[in-house]
């Protein structure tokens, strides 16, 4: 489902996409019934709500790429960094929490992109921690090195938002 939101103050339209587990399973053979990116409103922000399943990560990455195209972000290093950050934060939210849904939010201003991923909170106790598995544990370090800023916010309900800022000027 695609919706736009116009805040009466100064918020430009926001592209909001909500994907169901069925949408995720059928992608890319049958993308959901969303208008294609050329019909998206010219928006400085994108919000994607996804089921917290591994298969959602490449879809989130694909939608981020389409939004960057719509924003005319052409610099390869900026695009690579934005896609890397989005992928790492979404992957962490899926692998290291017991979330059933994650929400990715991208917002652009003149100088940077702000990428946020919100999950529903804590990791299950029986899940193996990254340091006991080879190949895990480097994602946030990579994000910290390539982002201008990185932070986290934990809400009263236990949900967590991890955010990173990526410079548009390289």
Number of strands: 7
Distance between the termini: 35 Å
Shape: globular
Q: What's the mean pLDDT score?
A: 82
Task: Give the spatial strand order of the biggest sheet.
Answer: 1-2-3-4-5-7-6
Summed up, the helix count is: 4
Task: Provide the gyration radius in Å.
Answer: 16 Å
Instruction: Find the structural class using helix and strand composition.
Output: alpha+beta
As a percent range, the share of strand residues is 25-35%
Topology as a string of helices (H) and strands (E): EEHEHHEEHEE
Largest sheet: 7 strands, mixed
Helix content: 25-40%
The low-confidence parts are 1-11
Describe this structure in words.
This protein is an alpha+beta fold and 170 residues long. It contains four helices and seven strands, in the order ββαβααββαββ. It has a seven-stranded mixed β-sheet, covered by helices on one side. A hairpin with a 3-residue loop joins strand 4 and strand 5. The N and C termini lie far apart (35 Å). The N terminus is likely disordered.
Helices and strands, with pairings:
Layout: E1 2-5, E2 14-18, H1 21-26, E3 45-51, H2 56-70, H3 76-95, E4 101-108, E5 112-119, H4 139-146, E6 149-154, E7 160-167
Parallel strand pairs: 2-3
Antiparallel strand pairs: 1-2, 3-4, 4-5, 5-7, 6-7
Helix pairs in contact: 2-3, 3-4
Supply database-style keywords:
single chain; 170 residues; alpha+beta; 7-stranded mixed β-sheet; 4 helices; 7 strands; 29% helix; 27% strand; globular; disordered N terminus
């Amino acid at each position: 489902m695609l919706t736009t939101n116009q805040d009466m103050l100064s918020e430009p339209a926001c592209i909001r996409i909500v994907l169901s587990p069925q949408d995720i399973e059928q992608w890319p053979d049958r993308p959901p019934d969303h208008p294609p990116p050329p019909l998206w409103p010219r928006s400085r922000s994108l919000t994607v709500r996804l089921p917290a399943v591994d298969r959602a990560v490449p879809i989130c990455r694909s939608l981020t790429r389409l939004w960057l195209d719509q924003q005319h972000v052409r610099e390869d290093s900026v695009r690579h960094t934005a896609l890397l950050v989005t992928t790492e934060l979404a992957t962490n939210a899926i692998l290291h929490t017991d979330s059933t849904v994650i929400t990715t939010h991208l917002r652009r201003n003149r100088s940077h992109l702000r990428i946020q991923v919100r999950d529903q909170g804590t990791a299950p106790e029986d899940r193996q921690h990254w340091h006991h598995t080879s190949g895990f544990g480097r994602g946030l370090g990579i994000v910290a090195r390539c982002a201008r800023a990185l932070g986290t916010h934990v809400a009263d309900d236990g949900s967590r938002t991890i955010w990173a800022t990526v410079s548009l000027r390289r």
